[in-house]
């Protein structure tokens, strides 16, 4: 075992843009096929293992806590689609879910009781992830799509973590997996009405989903036809079947612009019809509702409005819900007699219901001060019941069926937390920080009620703040291992996310990106000033674009944190976004700016890029976790970052842990994921002297 951190060969390489020359001494680590790169990553793993060996017992204890609190043999609440109830089952000791169904009685609207998680009577196993993953180090299921008649299943699998899926078709009548097979597909698929034709997506060399294909079951993949191809490198394409099963929807979306096409599901060879040509800066999405398409859009409506247009002749958009500043409409779901709009207001999610043919509406009400709610599945179109998911920082994931006519809400299942979990022992709070420019930034906090408010409690502060993605309050079994040891947990709802509406996002991207970082620092300092904790007891945590946040705050305010966990961190953004040949770079320009064309964007990104701004100073303890096969944030970003931190500020404690056979989401099996989480929790507790 090593006794000192690995040393890294430095090979100065220069890049020059806009008259600025930068030397990158670790750029060679991007050579994934170089044996020296792999040797370095393995050496870092060995060093991390040695440096954390004293935590092995604690990591095992925490893993066992997570395992003991989890009902390992369990069953999701069955969802009705056509003549079947569909559900996922997990089995104690097995890593992956099992996709199943049972026949449904014609008038049965109540799902079968899930009991102790044992198989339901008459169960038909559609797909067993454990069988598919046998002999593999990684397994992920991409598409899982049953035909409208329930006779065929399209599914796709990834065995490397690079999100390139092999698409297959299974005959659910005979149980036979057909010869149809398409390699290198992306998420998303849609069946024609009769189940004879399958639409799927492939990616270009930059990992951008750009083509929609039509496949006739029984034919060779080489005979498949391109239905739509998106030439603009800023746009991703998607495909799906509407809930009504009447239309195939093909959408093209950049970060700020949308365009939608449709074709009748009973005429799969038809030319897709355009709903409205793209207009730069206008986003819209549609759902089919009887004689009309519902259109959720932001044309002259920053927080979005709801309109509709004719199915037979799409044209003008007729207003249904006007724009209301501060109420962000996020999605619309059509049912035969109702419309449900998912929204957020005052930093909380919500659901609004409209009856067909009426302008009256009502918002569902929930009792807790902090919570997250949303629609959950709902494949049936002709129904008065909708399934919703509900959780808070103290309430485990809960599934309700809501009668849209009577408004009655029935709890179908609350995720079991074994071992005597008592929500009355915990309390959640909403705090507010004041950012540098006077903006109030919300913070969600949860802690045991007996935790002292005198600054002595350690605290884990989580943040993300990009892509208008919101980090809403949620429950976590693993988090209990922190809370029950006296640690406070908080989420900083910083700008760049979507928690407070579209303006919240706009004020944390492009040339306002630094607000994301200063907001997070303001949250940390507020929590210390308000006696929740103190600066030497705060550990910050974030992943992906949230890992960029972690790297930035390490440079900007190292005194505000005892430790930082950066998972698959985007810590070398300028280098990556300057290279349009890398996966996803061009699509990212509308989020971060284009430093190739703009000297101002280049200078701004360089001013906050974590890798560019490492200096000789005292840094918090840093744990970086990455994956070799990640196609979203390439492994070499955190590898270079840790190397530069060691070279520039050698007095600090820096650890790099690389999953050598996984992708952006880390280990794929649930037990492996629990072990990874237990490792991070143990490191966190040790950093604040709770180990």
Automatic annotation (TrEMBL):
Lineage of producing organism: Bacteria, Bacillati, Actinomycetota, Actinomycetes, Micromonosporales
InterPro entries on file: AB_hydrolase_fold, Pept_S9A_N, Peptidase_S9_cat, Peptidase_S9A, Serine_Peptidase_S9A
Domain Peptidase S9A N-terminal: 5-413
Keyword Hydrolase assigned: yes
Domain of life from the UniProt record: Bacteria
Family: Belongs to the peptidase S9A family.
Protein name: Oligopeptidase B
Cited Pfam families: Peptidase_S9 (PF00326), Peptidase_S9_N (PF02897)
Keywords: Hydrolase, Protease, Serine protease
Keyword Calcium: no
Positions of the Peptidase S9 prolyl oligopeptidase catalytic domain: 474-688
PANTHER family for this protein: PROLYL ENDOPEPTIDASE-LIKE, PROTEASE FAMILY S9A OLIGOPEPTIDASE
């Amino acid at each position: 075992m090593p006794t000192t951190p690995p040393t890294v060969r430095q090979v100065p390489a220069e890049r020059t843009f806009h008259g600025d020359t930068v030397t990158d001494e670790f750029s060679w680590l991007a050579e994934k096929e170089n044996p020296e790169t792999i040797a370095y990553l393995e050496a870092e793993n060995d060093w991390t293992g040695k440096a954390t060996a004293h935590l092995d017992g604690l990591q095992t204890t925490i893993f066992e806590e997570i395992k003991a609190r989890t009902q390992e043999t369990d069953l999701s609440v069955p969802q009705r689609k056509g003549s079947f109830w569909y559900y996922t089952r997990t089995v104690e000791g097995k890593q992956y879910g099992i996709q199943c169904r049972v026949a449904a009685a014609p008038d049965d609207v109540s799902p079968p009781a899930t009991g102790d998680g044992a198989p339901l009577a008459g169960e038909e196993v559609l797909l067993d992830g454990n069988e598919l993953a046998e002999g593999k180090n990684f397994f992920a299921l991409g598409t899982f799509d049953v035909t409208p008649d329930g006779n065929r299943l399209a599914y796709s699998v990834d065995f490397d973590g690079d999100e390139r899926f092999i698409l297959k078709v299974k005959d659910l009548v005979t149980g036979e997996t057909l010869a149809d097979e398409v390699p290198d597909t992306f998420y998303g698929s849609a069946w024609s009405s009769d189940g004879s034709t399958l639409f799927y997506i492939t990616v270009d060399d930059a990992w951008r989903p750009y083509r929609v294909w039509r496949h006739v079951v029984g034919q060779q993949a080489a005979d498949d036809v391109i239905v739509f191809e998106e030439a603009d490198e800023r746009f991703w394409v998607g495909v799906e079947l509407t809930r009504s099963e009447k239309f195939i929807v093909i959408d093209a979306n950049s970060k700020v612009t949308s365009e939608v096409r449709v074709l009748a599901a009973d005429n799969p060879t038809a030319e897709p019809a355009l709903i409205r040509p793209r207009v730069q800066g206008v986003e819209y999405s549609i759902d089919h509702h009887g004689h009309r398409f519902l259109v959720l859009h932001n044309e002259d409506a920053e927080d979005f409005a709801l309109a509709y247009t004719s199915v037979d002749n799409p044209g003008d958009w007729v207003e249904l819900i006007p724009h209301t500043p501060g109420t962000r409409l996020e999605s619309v779901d059509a049912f035969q007699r109702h419309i449900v709009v998912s929204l957020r207001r005052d930093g909380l999610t919500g659901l609004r219901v409209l009856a067909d043919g009426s302008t009256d509406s009502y918002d569902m009400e929930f009792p807790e001060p902090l919570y997250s709610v949303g629609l959950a599945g709902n494949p049936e179109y002709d129904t008065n019941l909708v399934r919703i998911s509900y959780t808070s920082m103290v309430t485990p994931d809960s599934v309700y069926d809501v009668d849209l006519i009577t408004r009655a809400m029935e709890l179908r299942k609350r995720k079991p937390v074994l071992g005597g979990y008592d929500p009355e022992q915990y309390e959640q709070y909403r705090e507010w920080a004041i950012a540098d420019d006077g903006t109030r930034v919300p913070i969600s906090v949860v802690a045991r009620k007996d935790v002292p408010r005198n600054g002595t409690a350690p605290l884990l502060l989580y943040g993300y703040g990009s892509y208008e993605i919101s980090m809403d309050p949620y429950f976590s079994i693993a988090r209990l291992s922190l809370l029950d040891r006296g640690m406070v947990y908080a989420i900083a709802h910083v700008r760049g996310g979507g928690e407070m509406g579209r303006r919240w996002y706009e004020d944390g991207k492009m040339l306002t990106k630094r607000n994301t970082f200063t907001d997070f620092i303001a949250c940390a300092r507020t929590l210390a000033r308000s006696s929740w904790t103190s600066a030497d007891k705060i550990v910050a945590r974030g992943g992906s674009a949230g890992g960029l946040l972690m790297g930035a705050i390490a440079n900007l305010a190292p005194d505000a944190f005892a430790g930082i966990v950066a998972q698959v961190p985007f810590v070398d953004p300028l280098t990556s976004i300057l290279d349009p040949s890398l996966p996803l770079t061009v699509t990212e320009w509308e989020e971060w700016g284009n430093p190739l064309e703009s000297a101002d964007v280049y200078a701004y990104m360089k001013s906050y890029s974590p890798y560019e701004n490492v200096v000789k100073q005292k840094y918090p303890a840093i744990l970086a976790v990455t994956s070799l096969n990640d196609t979203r944030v390439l492994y070499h970003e955190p590898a270079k970052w840790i190397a530069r931190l060691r070279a520039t500020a050698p007095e600090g404690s820096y650890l790099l842990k690389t999953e050598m056979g996984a992708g952006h989401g880390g280990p794929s099996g649930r037990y492996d994921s629990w072990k990874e989480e237990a490792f991070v929790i143990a490191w966190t507790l040790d950093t604040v002297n709770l180990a």
